Amino acid sequence: MPASFRAGRFRKVTLPVTHIDRRTLLRSGLAATTLGILGAATGCTTAAAPPKPGTPAGGPHLIGPDSPQVAAAEAARHKTGSVVPVALAAMAGPVDLGGVVVSTWSYHGQIPGPEIRVRKGDVVQAAVGNHLPDQTTVHWHGIALRNDMDGVPMMTQPPVPAGQAFAYRFTANDPGTYWYHPHAGVQLDRGLYGPLIVEDPAEPAPYDQEWTVVLDDWIDGTGYTPGQVLTALRQGMTGMNMPSAAPSPSASGMGGMTGMTMASPSPSMGAMPGAGMAPKSPSMSGMGSSGVTPLLSGAASRLLGGDAGDVRYPYYLINGRVRTAPRTFTGRRGQRVRIRFINAGADTAFRVALGGHTMTVTHTDGFPVIPKPAAALLIGMGERYDVQVTLADGVFPLVAMAEGKNSTALAVVSTAMGTPPAPDVLPRELYRPVTTSYALKPAATSALSARQPDVTYKLRLTGGMARYDWGINGRSFDMAQPGGLRYLVRQGQRVRVIFANTTTMYHPMHIHGHTFQVVPGGPRKDTVLVLPRQQVACDFDAGNPGQWMTHCHNLYHSPEGGMMAVLGYQT
Ligand SMILES: [Cu+2]
Q1: 138 alpha carbon to ligand 1 midpoint, in Å?
Q2: What is the 139 CA–ligand 1 centroid distance (Å)?
Q3: Are 368 and 384 in contact (CB under 8 A)?
Q4: 102: which DSSP letter?
Q5: For residue range 354-386, what is the model confidence (pLDDT) as tens digits?
Q6: Count of C-beta atoms within a 10 Å radius of residue 215
Q7: How far is the CA of 504 from the centre of ligand 1 (A)?
Q8: What's the pLDDT at 291?
């Protein structure tokens, strides 16, 4: 069982650190610098176009992470009075994925990182020790928290340098299934992620036990680092010299890939990310030391409306395990289980199913939905779904199929003696109608009140693989010039953000610090799949002052830039 944090039970980090707190942030001048750039934005709140950079002073007064409004919003949050201390040590080193030992970055040397579990209204006090050879931050995905704890480097805090620490402290107000991960470069595609569960003692719990199931696509330490993958992607798919031995997976069923699953890469194959060396650029043909390009072409999915991803992952994981060494969840026949699914992948949507069972979807992104039976469920990067199942008698595969990529991750559900499933088992439930967030309706407690938006912004998702120019409204976000893609809001407004996908690929769009309702009539979410040539409208009530990112949760589309923008509160 993975370690779990509760009040009074946590592992101490003994790291000599220079403590960075909000005062340090102010002293560092980052806040002032950020606001200085912020000050260059225009005061237009209703135009669909973003403010132009370089507009002279006289613009809006922006609410930065250090503004009194942020502290006031935190003070107004309901609190239980409990403070839950958590220590997270981000470190480099070997991790065993189940016979496959990779050199990678993780929290405490375990994947996923420790499960943090608090009650609604508890204060999370997380000491993050950075033992990595690179700077980092932690973002608490989905939590509507105080802005200065949101973990976006250069926007809400300075990055935490190697060898130093940062003390996060925030109230977790909304119950549900959340998770944490860095918001720095492409670190998320290593092993730096973990679940954050906020319990509601008042919520009816008609289940006997619960399991957290974290999905991931894995390449780090198998011949490429995520940094090298990003470099290869930026070189573009054009001119890529695909070896004939690695045909398109959609054409071949990726037979060569499945055969790789048993292979245990020798440690020397790894790119030694722990050594902190600058990523080595792949050769001209896009080939790395493993001899297989990390770029994937031809992956397609009807469910995703086209291109299913661009990165060729040798492994897919459930709770840090390859499918040849799956984690087993045990229960008794007739027990009711709540399963919390989290997609921590970087470039992979998963289709999940539990063989021999029908799931009932109860929540997405933390918020209740009208319960809906589902044989299979599509989960985009960053999304979470809670389901309930009543366990049958036997041994069953819990499969997460890498959508459009012809491979799977596996866990086992066991209530009796029996033969374990084959690693590549494909339960028939995967091929029944697949439930997506579009089919879900909000529970009464999740729906926003009926109200017309005060301000509407249309964010066209633009760019493509050929030039690797992912952006919003034709512009790639630049953290040094955030005013170029800042959309202004005021506290108390009903805000509508329309994501309009003009590209040929799906994008899981995430808004920080808020949950929105997909309109009309959709569920409350913080991350929503936007399929090619589709528009998705998202309404939220602006009640959490600060500067908040909205971005694609395909990690390689927005590595601190790209398909990213800011929703900026002004006074
Ligand atoms: Cu994207």
Answers
A1: 21
A2: 19
A3: no
A4: E
A5: 999 999 999 999 999 999 999 999 999 999 999
A6: 25
A7: 10
A8: 64
Q: Ligand 1 center to residue 396 CA distance, Å?
A: 34
User: Over the stretch 432-468, which tens digit does the pLDDT of each residue have?
Assistant: 999 999 999 999 999 999 999 999 999 999 999 888 9
Report residues near ion ligand 1: CB below 5 Å: 507, 552, 554, 557
How far does residue 517's CA lie from ligand 1's centre (Å)? 20
C-alpha 274/C-alpha 347 separation (Å) is 23
pLDDT digits (tens, 9 = 90+) for 162-198: 999 999 999 999 999 999 999 999 999 999 999 999 9
Give me the pLDDT at residue 426, please: 98
Dihedral sign, Cα of residue 143, residue 145, residue 147, residue 151 = negative
| 475 CA to centre of ligand 1 in angstroms | 14
- CA 68 vs CA 23, 57, 393: distances in Å: 13, 22, 57
List the domains of the chain with CATH numbers: 4-38+77-202 (2.60.40.420), 204-444 (2.60.40.420), 455-570 (2.60.40.420)
Q: Hunting for tokens 């997270």 — which residue is that?
A: 88
Bridge partners of residue 12, in order along the sequence = none
Structure tokens at 126: 């997380």
The contacts found for 326-330 with CB under 8 angstroms, 24 or more apart, are 326/98, 326/410, 326/411, 326/412, 326/420, 326/423, 327/411, 327/412, 328/411, 328/412, 328/413, 328/414, 329/211, 329/398, 329/411, 329/412, 329/413, 329/414, 330/413, 330/414, 330/415
Cα of 509 to ligand 1 centre, how many Å? 7
pLDDT tier at 246 (50, 70, 90 boundaries)? very low
Ligand 1 centroid from CA 507, angstroms: 4
Taking a C-beta distance cutoff of 8 angstroms, is the pair 120, 161 a contact? Answer: no
Ligand 1 centroid to residue 484 C-alpha, Å: 19
Q: The tokens 């990067």 sit on which residue?
A: 381
pTM of the predicted structure, to 2 decimals: 0.85
Provide the phi-psi class of 337: left if phi over 0, else alpha when psi is between -120 and 50, else beta: beta
